[in-house]
Amino acid sequence: MTRNNVPRAFARFIPAALALSLLAAGTAGAADRKHPANPQPQAAAPADREAVNHAREATACLKLAERAPDAAFDSALTWEDRGGGDMARLCQAMALFHQGQFQAAATRLEDLVPTLGSNTAEGAASLFARAGWAWLRAGNSDRAERAYGAALERTPQDPELLIDRAFARAEAQRYQDAVEDLNRAIAIAPNNAESYVYRAGAYRSLGKQDKAMEDVQRALALEPSNPEALLLRGNLRAAGGNQDGARADWQMVTKVDPDTANARAASDNLNRLQTGQVAK
């Protein structure tokens, strides 16, 4: 199994939505603690403006973490000094992730669960899911498994989390466990092509080529131009001796998903087909 995109459970909570939802839920940041317990009516407007400002700071900082993580980390340190609290520390964790400091990011994300994740199961699951992906990128499959497990304890019917944990399990060569997670994901959301693509990859690794092809065909019935499904079907066709079918699939990948890892893999396989080598 390969994954060329950010896990959906990681990316689904976009910075603005995550920041605003956590602030609205009443997080234990310093900005919230500064508000008086029984504000006078005339004090309500300044307090509201302060909350909005912190929400705007959170949105900007988390977006900056993706494109300029060094600057975002420094900005988050300054923001923390100005009362940013746990949201500032969340931005620091995300900046560390985008810097490639995955272990440090994962640890910080898990440390934030008791505060930022205390109000909603979804908030805690989001933090654990991000930590799981960070642990996986750090090469620690055991910690990734624990983080994804903790996320699923809070939102057990989340198909995207099940897909993400399945991918982590496949990375650890636990293909049958990955299949079980994907079975659950498909039962919950039967029209998600990604689930079938990843289950096909797990079946292929288990040597179950027929099952793998069935799942690839299901994925392509849902998304005819899905590049990962086309790439995998080409590989399965090549392994079964259908070189013309494999060539057609790989050529389609280069058209629908150019300048990507999928396209590069398809091009490599096309070159191998020309020289009589086995496709990967």
Automatic annotation (TrEMBL):
Keyword Endoplasmic reticulum: no
Organism: Skermanella aerolata
Domain of life: Bacteria
Annotated signal peptide: 1-30
TPR repeat start and end residues: 125-158, 159-192, 193-226
Protein name, per record: Uncharacterized protein
SMART domains assigned: TPR (SM00028)
Keywords attached to this entry: Repeat, Signal, TPR repeat
Any one Pfam family match given in the protein's UniProt record, by short name: TPR_16
